[in-house]
Amino acid sequence: MQAIRPWTNPTFQMKVSTSLPEAQRQMTLLYRQALRSAPLVKRLYSIPMTVVEMRKKIGAEFRSHGAIDNAAVLDVLCLKGYNLLEEAVGNYTFRSTLWAWFSAIDDTPKKEETELESVEREVLSSFLTPNVKKVRGGSSFQ
């Protein structure tokens, strides 16, 4: 008999979802397991951030894929997520890999661009973009 690992869901079997709500339910289960595993992952890999910060980054990663409405795509993301979770909790991955993953997630809220910032961006982009003028025999910069 195979021992049941506490971090895996023994009832989870990757199957093709028949509907979008079924795929979303699987993603919700993965999300909950990832949040519950954050303290263990922090302890195993000595990640220099709090558990709350780790959970915020995990939530940001899940929210970044929130607009997906294709069950097959959600199934693939769920499979990849379970693989990553099992590798992290089973101590099968490197600390640097996890740290790079947590560092790559941007959980800061997007701020609206002010009018001044948009004007600055337009001026800088027009300044940095070369004006190319067609001349006989080729092109020249102006």
In short:
The protein has five helices and two strands, in the order H-H-H-H-H-E-E. It has 142 residues and is mostly helical.
Biggest sheet features: 2 strands, antiparallel
Q: In one word, what is the shape?
A: extended
Write the H/E string, N to C.
HHHHHEE
Portion of residues in beta strands equals 5-15%
Distance between the termini: 77 Å
Number of helical elements: 5
Number of strands: 2
Q: What is the radius of gyration?
A: 23 Å
State the oligomer.
Answer: single chain
Q: What share of residues is helical?
A: 55-70%
Structural class, judged by helices and strands?
Answer: mainly alpha
Strand order of the largest sheet: 1-2
Poorly predicted runs are none
Account of the protein in words:
The protein has a two-stranded antiparallel ribbon. It has 142 residues and is mainly α. The relative contact order is 0.13. The chain has 5 helices and 2 strands, in the order αααααββ. α1 runs antiparallel to α2 and α1 runs parallel beside α3. Helix content is 58%, strand content 6%. The model has no long low-confidence stretch (mean pLDDT 79).
